Amino acid sequence: MALHENEVGADESVVRALLREQVPQWQGLSVSPAGAGTDNTMYRLGDRLLVRLPRTADNAGAVRKEQEWLPRLAPHLPCRVPEPVHAGVPSPVFPLVWSVHRWIEGEEAGTGTVADWSAFGADLAEVVRRLHAAPLLGAERRGELGGYRGGGLRACASGFGESFDACGAIRGLDLDVARLRELWESGLALPEPSGPQVWLHGDLKPSNLLVRKGKLRAVIDFGCLTVGFPDAEHAPVWDLPSEARQAYWDAVGLDDATWSRARAWAVAVAVSGVSYYWTTFPAFVAECLSRLRAILESADDR
Questions:
Q1: Residue among 66, 97, 102, 99 at smallest CA distance from 83
Q2: pLDDT confidence of 147, banded at 50, 70, 90?
Q3: Could you tell me the CA-to-CA distances from 170 to 1, 122, 234, 247 in Å, in that order?
Q4: How far apart are CA 87 and CA 66, in angstroms?
Q5: Is 174 helix (H, G, I), strand (E, B) or coil?
Q6: Edge-to-edge strand ranges of the sheet holding 215-219
Q7: Where would I find the beta strands (DSSP E) of the chain?
């Protein structure tokens, strides 16, 4: 199903045509669906490769970022990350750039795959710490690396405010939108972040965290990769159980203001996801609602 007005379709026939046209050495390999997110559609190619196709022209910028920066950042990280092995170019078959990555074995982080949530939270914190400590390698916060999640909340206040209004108008939505708005506004009222800008993954939700034998093995989907302030980086920890969240807090050593701004980001991004994808992507809406309910349940913990 198309999620965006300007979406470019990419089914198995498109993938096979691209292989014949640009990487004929792989055209005999099997092709099978490997999931689709809000920004990309994926196909497994044989046993060892993954084809990644952006849904829109705007998403194509994320593909270029991964191709350029992941090989340079990988040596600085304590886990596996996607390894681009082919940079596809636009063609009459598919008018956007696209990628082939090496396949990484693993399962999405969840109740059936993680053995110890406290250890998982600490391991995730170490990945974040190492990423934020990685050298910028000449990268600057502009162009494709100027993602909004690396800036301050106030720059996005208008758009997020509209998302709260849209959620409040959804009939049958069992959610305390007013309380969520209060939590967002409390973060918005804090001083803006300061300090050095760092590398940010931008979307460390469970579906982007792969587990093997109960432990964190890989971080995938660097499409939101940016340079900026780290507040929003911590937002997805509300997608994890409380014990993982506490372990992450302890390991990263966040101050109360940063934690409150991170929570405000977590609220705002999830609310915007609910309002935008309400009728088109129910599975993603469910993820957003799960996060928001976890935030409401833990709102008075700190």
A1: 102
A2: confident
A3: 22, 37, 28, 35
A4: 10
A5: coil
A6: 107-108, 209-212, 215-219
A7: 31-36, 40-45, 49-54, 84-88, 98-102, 107-108, 198-200, 209-212, 215-219, 226-228
Q: Could you read off the pLDDT of 193-227 as tens digits, one per residue?
A: 888 899 999 999 999 999 999 999 999 999 999 99
Contact assessment for residue 98 and residue 51, using Cβ atoms and an 8 Å cutoff: yes
Residue at 157: amino acid letter: A
Torsion of CA 199, 202, 208, 209, to 10 degrees: 50
Residue 34's φ and ψ, nearest 5 degrees, are -130, 25
- Contact at 8 Å (CB) between 55 and 39? yes
pLDDT at 175: 94
Token digits of residue 37: 């997110």
Q: What does the pLDDT read at residue 4?
A: 79
Cα–chain center distance at 14? 25
| 257 contacts 190 by C-beta, under 8 angstroms | yes
What domains lie within the chain, and their CATH numbers?
12-102 (3.30.200.20), 107-297 (3.90.1200.10)
Alpha helices in 74-176 (DSSP H): 117-133, 157-168
Q: Which amino acid is at 212?
A: R
Q: Name which of 228, 291, 230 is nearest 262 in CA terms.
A: 230
Residues 6 or more apart in contact with residue 208 via CB below 8 angstroms? 201, 219, 220, 221
DSSP letter assigned to residue 44: E
